[in-house]
Amino acid sequence: MDVKRRLLLKGMTSTAAVSMVAPHVAFADPIERALVTLRETSAGDLVQKPIAAVAIESFKNSVFMQAICAAHPAEEIILGGVDFSTLSELFTQKENNLVGIIDHANAAVLVQLCRHYNAKIHWLGQHAIYNHSTSHNVFKSGDSSSCHASLLEGLSACEASHAVREQGLNSTKISGKATAVHPQAWAGHLALALHDVGKGTANTPLVLNQPSQLISGSAVTFLIETC
Amino acid sequence: MENNGKTVLPRKVTEANFNKAVGKFRELLGEENVLLKNEQIAPYMKVMMPRPEAEFAPSAVISATTVEHVQEIVRVCNEFKIPVWTVSTGNNFGYGTAAPHHAGQVILDLKRMNKIIEVDPELCTALIEPGVTYQQLVDYLKEKGYKLWVDPPAPSAIVGPVGNTLDRGVGYTPYAEHFMVQCGMEVVLANGTVLRTGMGGVAGSNTWQVFKWGYGPYLDGIFTQSNYGIVTKMGLWLMPEPPVYKPFCIKFKNDDDVGELVDAFRPLSINNIIPNGVVLAGTLYEASATVKRSDYTTEKGATSKAIIQKIRDEHKIGAWNMYGALYGTAEQVAVNWKIVLDLVKHLGKGEIVTEKEAGNDPAFKYRADLMRGNMTMTEFGLYNWRGGGGSMWFAPVSQANGSETLNQVNLATRILNKYGLDYVGEFIVTQRCMHHIIDVLYDRTDEEEMHRAHDCFAELLDEFEKAGYGVYRVNNVYMDRVAKAFGKAQQEINHTLKRALDPNGILAPGKSGIDINRAAI
Q: What count of other Cβ atoms lies within 10 Å of the Cβ of residue A101?
């Protein structure tokens, strides 16, 4: 397995340090300004633990991961291939809640591990990105309702048309088209919302300190409470 | 599962009675083993089938640790008429995952019944519980120093022998037909009786795991792909590690080569020259180990022939890629290898690849691992081919005749392409028959594509049935449909058995189209 782990120390980068104290920061790229958002979250049943940010190699520089990393997760974990051993360790360590963006192959394994270890899935988003449209299939628990709103808010700032289907018994479908600001703003909005679920207050602005990598094909996002 | 604070109730069960049953489950199993909240049940809700998740929403999830727990669970279920859908690991991706046939069932997850009760290294047998995974069994054999192999299906590490055998799954070693190497079961019947099949009925017998048939009617088969009992122990045979193992691949360039291939290699399969399940993998199945569709196109619809050819050229993948392996002493393998080489020479086509030529090719390594029972998750790459989380195995059975192959491939490709989907398939040749395994991959996030995939699968079933083909296994959405294809007489006997063994119909209603509370039969 090609597994790379990086521990992100709080305040390690100067940009990140600025973001902690200054909600209004200057952006090199005005497009990225659109990703700054003040989010409303509500405290819920999610047991608060440090967050581990999880991604596959090709998503490690995505807007989603940049947003999470700006919020200083306890750990960043990059998966190599279909990484059963690393994914298993996320549950056996039992230290962190998990927020991430991965492919469908790893997602199939991840959800299985949730069953095996009695972990709770507070958010599971399946996203497809085409040339001129995106589609999203999301599961949310009560705690992560704000994430749904953040996803929609983010999508409204994207140039592509979108369709969002909510799983569950009262499933909803929303579709729309908005003006261009950033092609994948939704991923940044969603990432920060997932990070902040149940924390009560969350005003961390998104800071992008490097060009982000566009997510291509399809992706799965999640918020998992380990037991 | 909660719906705005309300639980999804089983059919014809009142909320009061459901709550009473939940109370009894909690008393029996402990609070932590009775799951009701959405976020607890969500891991059981991710399905790959082309219908909304809500159609499979369980009422609750419970997990047992002992046979006595299972006996008490069926007693409670009978008392309150609660349907219970049992899973061992629930990882039959593409065949339904852990989801029940329809919403409003209690999932009984046997993951905590995971004891390896006995392994006999001389007789090469094992007796295990349903929650035991292949990884766990491999680790155990390694720890004990036993030179024995297991035979996992492609998801390997995370699935288990009991669940896969009960669904009549197949693997890739010489022990590929899992039900053939199963020996003895312990089953909790709907009335709570514990039945031990075969020699397990004889007090003091030590032949439960070595002689399959016992005395009188052979019963084990009726507990596979059925809902007549809950299997709590199962015996199986393990393969002795051979002194020499030689995996190989033969790549063929043309789509039409597949028929000739099957006819050429069938005798080697029947004569046990190549004793394992010989696989003929099509281009896109083979490519999924290393390639994503979005690497080549983000346009919707079926992948063009030009792109498929480009993938073949760039990744050195054949139109058909035949994998097999030789097992035995050095002398046996040398003799059999010469037979294989002579056959390829006689065919006048095919590029032979052994471990030496393959190097680090992930596709070869994946197959070589599977054919010797190693744990590998490479096949999950299929889920990244198109992405979007949709997958259904369409698995018609055919004779191991070349004439069958091209007809089936052309028919399947025509239907799949008509619905904007790809042929991603392989044949597994096991002597006289073939499992034609096609992964119908689609984007579940796109509702329109999900509808297309649903209709596509239905047409595949219809058109293959018209041609005389039946599938060996299917996901929940099509279980009723497939049961009809096997005729009224089979449906009637299945329901007669169900009424006799489970008169309240509490065990997995709908499994394999058997549901006495809904069927007109």
A: 28
